[in-house]
Specification:
Layout: H1 7-20, H2 25-38, H3 51-69, H4 74-90, H5 95-107, H6 111-124, H7 136-150, H8 154-171, H9 176-190, H10 197-222, H11 244-263, H12 266-279, H13 288-319, H14 321-332, H15 336-339, H16 343-364, H17 367-385, H18 389-401, H19 411-420, H20 428-454
Helix pairs in contact: 1-2, 1-16, 2-3, 2-13, 3-13, 4-12, 4-13, 5-7, 6-8, 7-19, 8-9, 8-10, 8-19, 8-20, 9-17, 10-18, 10-20, 11-12, 13-19, 14-16, 14-17, 16-17, 16-18, 16-20, 17-18, 18-20, 19-20
Length: about 450
């Protein structure tokens, strides 16, 4: 099978093209998912039918797989909606106004310190307090007026948030990073190459360094110029007072974080935090319906994008097109004896492995889910090409991480958009996905290739 006609390649490229043409992201992913199903042999029984019948059967089967696969992100979707309700409730209090007041006085016109501070706070959500994107809809919307005052290009802030959501788990083996590194270790061991977590940490810093370079390049070069936004109405800071509702809301936020860490469930954490706000008066009883509606307006679209993305990933996995793509690349190197010590073939192999990881992660929107898909082929392929164990670790880790930044279906891009577009002045594709793709995927590709050749 030609690589260019592979269902993964075609469907991901179509999805990206439709998004660039400003077709709704949700519709773009659905079209790409159905196309992936049409291009793959989903069932042997379909081949016996006529072209029209087989096409209809494939569409039906693809739709069924899409809906079935959506269950994989149901917990994420529910947690996003609950977080949206909490954010909507907080927006009706003066709680975040005090944060805005503090930042306005301490930062003044130091916009670069502000952006890098956002990146640092975002980093804490992956390792120190593993709450992932839970803080974004709560923290970022109240800060938009300050960003507007400082004339900060929100594309730089999107890059800062995505850096914090991705670089820590790529680099450090704690929090979500422990899950990511453990997945690499387990999948390599399952394919006959035992490694330790310390070995993984000893090379994955290369990926973190590449992302740090991308962050600094985005903040100080690409998006440093002032950018004007329409200033929305904000509450008067000097008239804000901490009252019962503010303290109750603050308690709800604390309970959200504590419950999420204690239970390991963002859904339970968000639910407990929301109920604490209701019970202790952070949300008035008669306002519960309007708060929930506000949460749905803020986060429901992103929740459904994540659901459909999980369905898209299910089609790609069940169709066999991912393995077919990897096998097609492996088939390029047919003469095994001649490539074991060939620098040229190792270079081409490294680039192709990283590009495959980029395509797969761009499609399914999760680096964690990409590792098990690619490791079964990457490990023997890397050994055949003569890569060291450290080089194989790096290739698998970066190939999995590639595409998480830049994917329209990734929570590393959907999360930043949910906060930065609270006033409808931030485009998901052009202001989050494209900037983060440029800032991080290009440096990761370069660093992964060079690192694999030198290790």
């Amino acid at each position: 099978m030609s690589i260019l006609t592979n269902g993964v390649v075609v469907s991901v490229l179509v999805m990206c093209l439709l998004c660039l043409l400003r077709l709704n992201v949700l519709l773009s992913i659905i079209i790409a998912a159905l196309l992936a199903g049409l291009l793959s042999p989903l069932s042997p029984q379909i081949i016996e039918s006529s072209i029209i019948e087989s096409t209809l059967q494939k569409l039906t089967l693809s739709a069924q797989m899409l809906i079935k696969g959506m269950a994989g992100n149901l917990d994420i979707a529910l947690s996003y909606i609950l977080l949206g309700a909490i954010a909507a409730a907080i927006s009706r209090t003066h709680l975040m106004t005090f944060l805005l007041s503090f930042l306005a006085k301490s930062i003044s016109n130091k916009k670069f310190i502000f952006i890098l501070s956002i990146a640092l706070i975002s980093c804490f959500s992956q390792n120190l307090i593993p709450i992932h994107i839970a803080f974004i809809p709560i923290l970022i919307p109240p800060l938009l007026s300050l960003m507007n005052r400082l004339k900060i290009d929100r594309r730089a802030v999107a890059c800062a948030l995505t850096f914090g959501l991705q670089a820590p788990y790529v680099t450090f083996g704690i929090g979500f990073g422990l899950i990511f590194h453990s997945t690499i270790r387990n999948q390599m061991e399952a394919n006959g190459v035992p490694v330790t977590l310390s070995q993984i940490a000893s090379v994955m810093w290369i990926g973190g360094a590449a992302m740090l370079f991308g962050l600094l390049f985005a903040v100080f070069v690409l998006y440093r110029a002032p950018r004007e936004y329409r200033q929305s109405k904000t509450s008067e800071i000097e008239n804000a007072k901490m009252g019962h509702r503010e303290y109750a809301s603050l308690f709800g936020i604390i309970m959200l974080f504590v419950a999420q860490i204690a239970t390991g469930s963002l859904v339970l954490g968000a639910f407990i935090g929301l109920m604490c706000m209701i019970i202790f008066g952070g949300i008035k009883w008669r306002q519960i319906d309007s708060i929930m509606e506000g949460g749905l307006k803020m986060m429901a679209f992103i929740a459904f994008v994540m659901l459909v993305a999980a369905g898209f990933g299910e089609i790609l996995r069940q169709s066999g097109e991912v393995n077919a793509l990897i096998n097609s690349v492996a088939g390029i190197f047919s003469d095994i004896d001649s490539i074991e010590s060939s620098f040229y073939h190792r270079l081409i192999g490294a680039i192709l492995m990283l590009v495959i990881g980029l395509l797969i992660t761009m499609g399914i929107g999760t680096s964690f889910g990409t590792i098990p898909i690619i490791a079964s082929i990457y490990v023997p392929f890397g050994v055949t090409l003569g890569f060291s164990i450290e080089a194989i670790i790096l290739l698998i880790g970066i190939a999995g991480a590639l595409g998480d930044a830049g994917s329209p279906a990734s929570d590393s891009t959907l999360g930043p958009t949910s906060g930065l577009n609270a006033d409808l002045q931030h485009n998901h594709i052009y202001d989050t996905c494209i900037p983060t793709f440029i800032a991080y995927n290009i440096p990761l590709l370069i660093a992964g290739t060079i690192g694999a050749m030198l290790l």
